[in-house]
Amino acid sequence: MTAVTRVLVRHEAILAILFVVALFVLAAQSDRFLTTANLLNQARLMTEVGLIAIPMTFVIVTGGIDLSVGSILGLCAILVGVFWQNAGLPLPAAIVLSLLAGTLAGFANGVIITRFRVPPLIATLATLALYRGLAEGISQARSVRGYPAWFATLGQGELLGIPSQLWLFALVAIVGIFILRFTTFGRTTYAIGNNEAAAEFSGLAVERTKLLIYTASGFVSALAAIVFVSRVSTTRSDMGTGIELEVITAVVLGGTSIFGGRGMVVGTLIGLCLMQILQNGLSLSGVRGDGTTVVIGAVLIVAVLISNVLSRFSND
Q: Where are the transmembrane segments (predicted)?
């Protein structure tokens, strides 16, 4: 098989083709879809999911899962408001403390998984409930509003005609791509997903790597919370509810194996963009929300099936 053929049968290439096809089909359905204003707005709306999807790619490549990211987002969003309005701290200090809280929440997940050998699904399912309960308890069903105008710049402003948060998203994505693709840490991440026991016997820092990955997941979830609060100018305890499913869908759609050992940040980004344009394009075409969910599910199944068939073909 030639090098060109190998590239074409990669999951990411298949997904990119589906993305281009979806662009043309949806553009034909609505003249409002393929406009600069609409596309930039959709990019703004997908930033929170996209940010969390970067470390989630690492998590799933190791064969793990992090179901608590939405709850960490909600908890950190509430903490920003509480630290600022109730505790009377300057907003920059409240933001830093919120980021620290998210990082500690991710670190706690990592400790439970690595030190106590609790399966990631069980550990993060438990902390999903724990962190969401803390958010609801702290907020007492009250929202925080009235943030200063400078804070809204991150979620609502623009820099060089591009939404502000997209620059942050691009930075996180570039860092994620570089670490997973070109560093020893990235190679260790793949080794863990392929065979964790063999990685340990080879002397790789398995526990430390997984601990750092889950800690990073918590930190980036907190970062997404700051962006979210800045965009909507309010905080509520239910923020981020269900976002973990969107994140996992984007990662799996992007070609990361749920069993670990395979996946790329680039694929996650393409999967994320495909999901977003489908949601927006179908909405502009008059398709209801439940219909959009059905289409995204069908696209996920089709993309995975095509990828599996072509992978077998390439192996033969």
A: 51-84, 91-112, 166-184, 211-229, 250-279, 291-310
